[in-house]
Amino acid sequence: MNVTVFGATGAIGSLTVAELVDRGHQVTAYARNPQKIPASWGDRVRVVAGEMSDKDAIDSAVAGANAVVSALGPSLDRKATGLPLVAGTGHILAAMKHHGVRRYIGHATPAILDPHEKPTLVTRLIAFMPRTFMPRAYEEITGMSSRIMDSGLDWTIVRFIAPKDTPRQSRVRTGFFGTDKLGFAVSRADIAAFTAAQVDDTTYIGRAPAISN
């Protein structure tokens, strides 16, 4: 399967690219900074360089894809301004519709509720903290997620709270707040593996599962 990955050089994005390649997919990585491209990719990954404001480059990256994965996440820099990822997500979705690509997998936190969830103490807390102390980042993650959920595409949003730079763990919990037992910490490697698996798994279409160890 041909998969285009945005946020491909980030901590989770680069692991996701590796997972997809290991699973036999053909990967196109969209990179804002080509200097961050891992040497280990070699010629196994097609790279398209561009900003999230570059509609033409994004369109080129999506052309020919069967699925799109977004590992994009808001900057936590308090000096950051604007909502570039909201606009960029709009460009991605427009390119997908232009090229007839229906499968989208993205990332968020439990500040975003699954369509069938009711707020819990955990989701309220996870929403309260960024809304109060990082309002721009909160507006960006909610804006991105709203666009995805309203897109009419076959989307899945993978949610997590506290990603860690640890190896894949023996225990991985997935599900929904209020009905399933979920923790806080989760390995970035496990997030990447779960994200990559969603490319050809229809279990969570139109849902926002959470993952933890």
Structure classification: alpha/beta
Shape: globular
Low-confidence stretches: none
Distance between the termini: 28 Å
Mean pLDDT: 96
**What is the CATH first-level class name?**
Alpha Beta
Helix content: 25-40%
CATH topology: Rossmann fold
Computed CA radius of gyration, to the nearest angstrom: 16 Å
Number of domains: 1
Count of DSSP helices?
A: 6
Task: Please write the string of helix (H) and strand (E) elements.
Answer: EHEEHEHEHHEEEEHE
User: Which architecture would the CATH scheme give at its second level?
Assistant: 3-Layer(aba) Sandwich
Give a short account of the largest sheet: 6 strands, parallel
CATH homologous superfamily classification: NAD(P)-binding Rossmann-like Domain
| Order of strands across the main sheet | 3-2-1-4-5-6
Give the tally of β-strands: 10
Describe the protein's architecture and organization.
The protein has 6 helices and 10 strands. The strands form 3 sheets. The protein has a 6-stranded parallel sheet, with helices on both faces. The protein has helices at residues 11-22, 55-62, 84-99, 121-133, 135-149, 188-197, and strands at 2-6, 26-31, 45-49, 67-70, 103-108, 154-159, 162-164, 173-175, 185-187, 210-212. With 213 residues, it is of the alpha/beta class. The chain has a single domain (2-212), classed as Rossmann fold (3-Layer(aba) Sandwich), CATH 3.40.50. The chain is globular and about 45 Å long. Helices cover 35% and strands 21% of the residues. Helix 2 (55-62) packs across helix 3 (84-99) and helix 3 runs parallel beside helix 5 (135-149). It starts with a strand and ends with a strand.
